[in-house]
Design a protein that fits this description.
The structure holds 2 protein chains of 2 kinds.
Chain A lengths: L7 E5 L2 E2 L4 E2 L1 E7 L2 E8 L7 H5 L8 H5 L6 H16 L5 H30 L4 H21 L8 E2 L2 E2 L7 H23 L3 H7 L7 H6 L5 H5 L6 H4 L20 H25 L18 E9 L2 E9 L7 E5 L1 H4 L4 H5 L4 H11 L3 H5 L1
Antiparallel strand pairs in A: 1-4, 2-3, 4-5, 6-7, 8-9, 9-10
Chain B lengths: L5 E2 L2 H11 L5 E3 L3 E4 L4 H10 L7 E9 L4 E9 L4 E9 L6 E3 L8 H12 L2 E3 L49
Classes of the chains: A alpha+beta, B alpha/beta.
């Protein structure tokens, strides 16, 4: 006969290293098992959607990289694509390829951070994180070389990119791509069959595929559950229709699958960067766009595959210089939709690991 | 290479809904289908279960304030057929806006409806846990409404234009 204890409420967070920012889980425990969970967010809410309605389309670009501050390039890219779609601005070829290169480098940097922090949550305190930071550091150096900033790179512009790449960029990128396969196999040797990783993450936080689709999760979480869905393939933007890459998927939808999907995606991103570098054409990097852009009356929804999942912008224009409505479909928030189903029935230690494998970014959850 | 995602034209979706559910009042435009709030759960369930429309994936729920009414925009998607369906709901009551919740149809609506309720103040009847998501209970008003903290006289902060755009013969601030 199972023994029940008095329900016991534990607050995990908001100030706790395993919550990746300021996220609070109110967990109700029965003995060691979690019987209920309630998420509390909003500690980082800056009301960007409202602020953006007071600013011009160009002035809104910096907001987009303060959402997911670990993947600023993809935030910029998603917004600029939406604004271009709304106003019908063509983008030069070279800018499209530069966007692909920077978006994929950003995906590698974000996944490196996600994998490192995830292993941190598993109990491998900071060692894998520091290993993976080597690659991230080099990628951020490339960003700094190009646009002067490492994290909040306001690099994309409506109609192109802000700066062309400097002369020393391509040798540095080639050096990084040259040593990456060796580094990736090193990580795979260390992690893929690691006893601790297997014990902590297999069959933990299982997300079945039908629930994954119903709960609107996206990105590595959806693919970890075995659903082949990648917006870079399904709805190609920029120059992705000319790139060749594979979509890694998992089988069980547990934390381990999500880890493996992220590791493999880093390899695929390196493949895309190599191809984009081969095909990189010359020419202008930015279309002529008026400073005070006034898109025609209308509305548009545009989406990209950001490192966290489907990042979409829904813009409504009333013909004025500022957006009438600026809506962000943030993948980090929606990936938390199935949190309750994933962690009820497990222990607190497993809940921390599951939250780590979702890879949320609180800047994007709260906006 | 795969073809990009198509957005299904409104008339095609409307025709399909009309054939199955003749009781629902709807009107179509170029890209979307506009519904009344009362018919929403039934239409949503049909869109999800119909093999041709197959909208198993709820992409986003957006509330837009048009001053005299609200509009809810549901972006639905089919991962298998790779298309997008845009469903709109016109909420005529600006004081007490209420819409049936879609949480029984899509699990992903839980957080999104809470977000819309928090920032736009649209109540979703039937939502299991309709609490504010980002702001705290008791926060006055709903920030994304257009009449939230507006300056008297309709003034907006900032110049609303760049110096280059000033009229001939005028320099500096107006």
């Amino acid at each position: 006969m199972p023994i029940h204890t008095e329900p016991f409420v534990v607050n995990i967070g908001p100030q706790h290293p395993s919550t990746h920012g300021v996220f609070r889980m109110r967990v109700t425990l029965d003995g060691e098992r979690i019987i209920d969970v309630e998420m509390v967010v909003g500690y980082l809410h800056r009301s960007m959607e409202k602020l953006a309605e007071e600013r011009t389309y160009t002035q809104n670009i910096p907001f987009t990289d303060r959402m997911d501050y670990l993947a600023a390039m993809t935030g910029n890219l998603a917004y600029c694509l939406a604004a271009e779609k709304l106003s019908g601005i063509p983008v030069p070829e070279r800018a499209s390829y530069l966007r692909v290169i920077f978006a994929e480098l950003q995906r590698m940097a974000s996944h490196a951070m996600a994998i490192g922090i995830y292993l941190n949550d598993c109990g491998a305190w900071h060692t894998p994180l520091m290993y993976l930071f080597r690659e991230r550091e080099k990628i951020l150096d490339l960003f700094e070389m190009t646009c002067g900033a490492r994290l909040t790179t306001i690099y994309m512009r409506i109609g192109g990119v802000a700066f062309d790449i400097p002369d020393e960029f391509i040798p540095a990128l080639r050096a990084l791509l040259g040593e990456l396969p060796e580094r990736m196999s090193e990580y795979e040797d260390l992690l893929v069959e690691n006893e601790i990783v297997l014990m902590r993450s297999r069959d933990v936080g299982v997300l079945p595929p039908d629930l994954a689709v119903a709960a609107s999760v996206s990105g590595p979480m959806l693919r970890g559950s075995g659903i082949v869905w990648d917006i870079r393939k399904a709805d190609p933007y920029c120059a992705y229709d000319r790139m060749e890459f594979d979509i890694p998927v998992g089988y069980n939808g547990d934390c381990y699958d999500r880890l493996i999907v992220r590791l493999e995606e880093m390899r695929q991103s390196a493949r895309i960067v190599e191809q984009a570098l081969e095909q990189l054409p010359g020419g202008p990097i930015r279309a002529e766009v008026p400073l005070m852009l006034r898109p025609p009356v209308g509305e548009t929804y545009s989406r990209i595959e950001s490192p966290k999942g489907e990042l979409g912008f829904y813009l409504v224009s009333d013909g004025g210089p500022t957006p009438y409505r600026f809506k962000v479909r943030s993948p980090s928030l929606l990936n938390l939709s199935a949190l309750k189903e994933m962690i009820v029935g497990m222990t607190v230690a497993d809940a921390v690991v599951t939250l780590g494998s979702i890879d949320i970014n609180l800047g994007e959850v709260d906006r | 290479m795969a073809a990009p995602t198509t957005t299904l034209p409104g008339p095609q979706v409307a025709e399909r809904i009309r054939a199955a559910l003749p009781s629902i009042a709807l009107e179509e435009a170029g890209q979307w289908v506009m519904l009344e709030p009362a018919g929403l759960p039934e239409a949503a369930r049909f869109l999800r279960d119909d093999p041709e429309l197959d909208c198993k994936y709820l992409v986003a729920i957006t509330g837009v304030d048009y001053l005299d009414h609200f509009e809810l925009v549901y972006h639905l998607s089919s991962l298998a057929r790779n298309h997008l369906v845009i469903l709109k709901v016109r909420v005529p009551d600006h004081e007490q806006p209420e819409v049936p919740s879609l949480t029984p149809v899509w699990v992903g609506a839980r957080l999104q409806e809470r977000e819309v309720y928090d920032l736009m103040g649209i109540r979703f009847t039937g939502h299991p846990n309709l609490q504010r998501l980002f702001l705290w209970e008791g926060f006055p008003g709903h920030p994304l409404r257009k009449d939230f903290l507006t300056l008297p006289g309709g003034f907006k902060p900032g110049l609303q234009r760049f110096p280059k755009e000033f009229p001939e013969g005028q320099e500096g601030s107006p």
